[in-house]
Amino acid sequence: MDPAATLTALRSFCAERLGAELAARCVDLARPGFSLTKAGGGEAAGHSRFGGRALLEPGTPWPTCAGLPLSLLAVLDTDALAPWLGDLLPAGTGLLNFFALDSDSPQCDPAAAALSLALHSDDPQVGKVIAARSGQAVETPPPARSSVFAPVAWAASPGFAFPDTWDPAWDTLDLGPEADHMARAMPGMHIEGLLTEWSQRPGALDSEDIAFGRPGFPTGSSPVLPSGDDPNLYHHLLQLSGQDEWYLGGDGGWMHWSIPTEALRAGDFSRAVPTPDIW
To answer: Is domain 3-271 given the CATH code 2.30.320.10 in the classification?
Structure first.
């Protein structure tokens, strides 16, 4: 299916359970994204992958945090993903390199582990996103003290992501005059209760690694953003679960990167920030 056909099928699915008007408003909250899974032969979404070496334009400085180099965690090839994303990204965005301070993996630098104790996990310094034009990007050797993880190519299955249960995006949804006090107090739970067979919806994104779309927060929270910014003004870039060589947090966690939507549309990835969920 193409995006338009998938949205039509999704509206019909929701209309059967919510009625046409509420379904249309609900589907307006859905955002295009991709389930990321290990690619088989010929399935890779361009250069999209976990780990490996960064793909940067020559002369691009390697990102650091308090003097320590960040580690490359993932690359998204937006040239391969762009047809499903419409006008969300500027043409020619190319490759997005996702970096973070590795403070938990077996190969992390001891100084990085110590630094992480002094910083919040959502400090803007601990995660960076650097774009590179596909035709000019080259594999870039990491500096000393930066972790390097074995590359795992990703296949990308397109779909549409809805807000997490407690995401403040639900507070913008007009539930209609018939909604009671409890429904208005917990709109995400209210809608989920009405949407039976939800896992069977058209365009469902089912993996724990997701590009674009919306983030999932298993702890039941929502993105914590710099200066208390409104999460509704941000767009999700990447959700990364633990891998064989890398994980986040002492007990576990999912790494996320988010960006102001207006910065995303302008291609200004210097404003992307880490928005992790640690448990």
So the answer is: yes
Q: What are phi and psi of 174, to 5 degrees?
A: -80, 110
What SS3 state is found at 10? helix
pLDDT in tens, 160-213: 999 999 899 999 999 999 899 999 999 999 999 999 999 999 999 989 999 999
- Written as six digits, the tokens of 64 are 């650091």
pLDDT, position 250: 61
Tokens of 152: 């795992």
53 SS3 class:
coil
Q: How confident is the model at residue 222 (pLDDT cuts 50, 70, 90)?
A: low
Q: Can you tell me which residue has the tokens 């910065």? A: 263
Q: Which residues contact 4 (CB under 8 A, 6 or more apart)?
A: none
Mean pLDDT in the chain? 92
Task: Tell me the two tokens of residue 246.
Answer: 């890398």
Q: Are residues 259 and 235 in contact, defined by beta-carbon separation less than 8 angstroms?
A: yes
Q: How far apart are CA 65 and CA 121, in angstroms?
A: 12
Quote the tokens at residue 101: 């301070």
How far apart (Å, rounded) are the C-alpha atoms in residues 238 and 261? 14
Separation of CA 233 from chain center:
15
Write the pLDDT tens digit of every residue in 52-71: 999 999 999 999 999 999 99
Whole-angstrom distance, CA of residue 238 vs CA of residue 241: 10
Sign of CA dihedral 215, 217, 220, 226: negative
Q: Are 187 and 171 in contact (CB under 8 A)?
A: yes
The count of C-alpha atoms lying within 13 angstroms of the C-alpha of 24, restricted to the half-sphere facing its C-beta, is 3
Locate the domains of the chain by residue range: 3-271
Q: Say what the pTM is.
A: 0.95
Interatomic CA distance for residues 125 and 257, integer angstroms: 12
